[in-house]
């Protein structure tokens, strides 16, 4: 029995290496550029499906509202296409925000739990819910399903003790041009 188990394990190990399916490296690079908020504001259920659609050439690169123009420029540079103006919905710059639940008004319907793509809402059926502020991405997907409108969006301080700092944005095309000049 042990010999049979070892033989089958070796066959399965060999098969996993021989028939390994490689992913599209372009999709992985596009997904790394996207902000990973999983908000669905681009019309896709998350950043990975949006990256797959971009990699297949099925959609525009200007739909990511949280990433804004900086993400669109990085995608254009990666794909070697012309930058596009942001889509109308994505062009509106919003401040960083986090959802807050008025726990006195919450009826415990769990609709906001189902809508949250990052599981930042904690609670149980017919019990009050609360937001884990450090996990909330501010995507506003919990607002529409709430039947009693007990969820509000509050701006987050982005200073020294705030939520997330803005990373400096360096145009990729400038870096490449500098390398070409140095060579």
Q: Could you provide a short overview of the structure?
A:
The chain is mainly alpha-helical and 183 residues long. It has six helices and four strands; from the N terminus they run ααααβαβββα. It starts with a helix and ends with a helix.
Question: Which key features would you list for this structure?
Answer:
183 residues; mainly alpha; 3-methyladenine DNA Glycosylase II, Chain A, domain 3; Alpha-Beta Plaits; two-stranded antiparallel sheet
List the helices and strands and how they pair.
Elements: H1 2-18, H2 25-33, H3 47-56, H4 68-79, E1 97-101, H5 111-115, E2 121-122, E3 130-131, E4 151-155, H6 172-182
Helix pairs in contact: 2-3
Mind telling me which CATH architecture of the largest domain this is? Answer: 2-Layer Sandwich
Q: Biggest sheet, strands in spatial order? A: 1-4
Whole-number tally of structural domains: 2
Please outline the major beta sheet: 2 strands, antiparallel
**What is the structural class?**
mainly alpha
Terminus-to-terminus distance: 63 Å
CATH T-level topology of the largest domain:
Alpha-Beta Plaits
**Using DSSP, what is the number of strands?**
4
User: What is the string of SSEs from the N terminus onward?
Assistant: HHHHEHEEEH
How helix-rich are the residues, as a percent range?
25-40%
Task: Report on the architecture of this protein.
This protein has helices at residues 2-18, 25-33, 47-56, 68-79, 111-115, 172-182, and strands at residues 97-101, 121-122, 130-131, 151-155. It has 183 residues and is mainly alpha-helical. It has two domains: 25-92, Orthogonal Bundle (3-methyladenine DNA Glycosylase II, Chain A, domain 3), CATH 1.10.15.40; 94-163, 2-Layer Sandwich (Alpha-Beta Plaits), CATH 3.30.70. The strands form two sheets. A two-stranded antiparallel sheet has the order 1-4. α2 crosses α3 (47-56). Residues 174-178 have low confidence and may be disordered.
């Amino acid at each position: 029995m042990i010999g049979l188990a070892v033989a089958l394990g070796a066959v399965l190990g060999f098969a996993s290496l021989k028939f390994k399916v490689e992913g599209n490296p372009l999709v992985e690079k596009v997904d790394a550029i996207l902000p990973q908020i999983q908000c669905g504001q681009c019309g896709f259920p998350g950043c990975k499906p949006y990256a797959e659609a971009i990699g297949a050439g099925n959609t525009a690169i200007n739909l990511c509202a949280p990433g804004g123009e900086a993400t669109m420029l990085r995608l254009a540079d990666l794909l070697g296409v012309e930058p596009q103006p942001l889509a109308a919905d994505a062009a509106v710059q919003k401040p960083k925000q986090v959802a807050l639940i008025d726990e006195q008004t919450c009826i415990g319907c769990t609709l906001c739990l189902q809508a949250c793509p990052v599981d930042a809402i904690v609670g149980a059926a017919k019990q009050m819910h609360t937001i884990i502020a450090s996990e909330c991405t501010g995507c506003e997907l919990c607002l529409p399903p709430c039947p009693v409108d007990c969820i509000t969006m509050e701006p987050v301080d982005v200073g020294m003790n705030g939520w997330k700092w803005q990373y400096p944005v360096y145009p990729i095309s400038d870096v490449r041009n500098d390398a070409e000049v140095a060579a």
